[in-house]
Amino acid sequence: MPGGRLTQQERQQIAAGLSDGLAYAEIARRLGRPTSTITREVTRNGGPTGYRADLAHRATQQRTQRRRPTAPQGSQALPQPYGRDAEAVRDYQETLTTVFMTSGLPKMMARVLGCLYTTDSGSLTASELAQRLQVSPASISKAITFLEGLDLVRRERDERRRERYVVDDDLWYQSMLRSARANDEFIETARQGVGILGHGTPAAHRLENAARFLDFVSEALIRAAEQGREVLYTRTETPPGDTA
Q1: Are 175 and 150 contacting, i.e. CB atoms less than 8 angstroms apart?
Q2: I want to staple 45 with a disulfide (CB 3.0 to 4.6 A). Which of 21, 33, 56, 122 is the partner?
């Protein structure tokens, strides 16, 4: 049997096996690994329903890195304002990236968003993002297009006519509205199904309840977003010595 840590490809096979409803023993047999290895891997990374190969692999890498010091690379060596601990900022950015991935964002999109949110300006150019994340400009462009489609970032031109990618307060409001309105298509389709399946039937009743629930939640969410929008524009005091 092969030894050593699980590879990313093996983790993807584990995720595929769980999705197909395979038992741990069968997944282990196909990988040539002990069943206990698969059991520990799945248990420590979300369980059979929450296991994701990318997140599991990333978590293992982070645990390994914490066990041995590594030389600073890229943005890790950049000086930090306000007397911040550069290593602590780097670790926090990785944590925030993992949270974004857990919420459903692909890895690169989560890394870009995490990088933008941990800058004081809230905006970076494509070249700045590529340098900080040590990836290609093409990867940045693809990630920005994806995030822009979700209203999580926006583009603007600076005084030098460079295109900058921005996260600001209003994007949370816009994203919340988009999330609420994303339910509309399902609500409409569910109510169409009621007529097709027949009013009063179990299937129609299930769809009608789901439509009513989502309709109620969406309306409440939009009202809450409107009422709470002013919170996004409440400014805290600027820290002493701010030179930004």
Answers
A1: yes
A2: 56
Contact residues for 58 (Cβ-Cβ < 8 A; gap 6+): 98, 101, 107
**210 neighbors 230 (Cβ within 8 angstroms):** no
Please give the Cα distance from 125 to 161 (Å, whole number).
11
Predicted confidence pLDDT, tens digits, the chain (244 residues)? 345 688 999 999 999 999 988 998 899 899 998 888 888 888 888 888 889 999 988 888 777 666 554 444 434 446 777 888 888 888 888 888 888 887 788 889 999 999 999 998 889 999 999 999 999 999 999 999 999 888 889 898 888 888 999 997 787 788 788 888 888 888 999 999 999 999 889 999 999 999 999 999 999 988 888 888 877 777 655 555 444 3
Angle (nearest 5°) at CA 50 between 93 and 190: 110
CB 232 within 8 A of CB 170: yes
32 to 36, 102, 125, 241: CA distances (angstroms): 12, 29, 46, 59
Q: Which residues pair with 156 in a beta bridge?
A: 164
CB 193 within 8 A of CB 205: no
On whether the CB atoms of residues 56 and 11 are closer than 8 A, the answer is: yes
Q: Which residues pair with 154 in a beta bridge?
A: 166
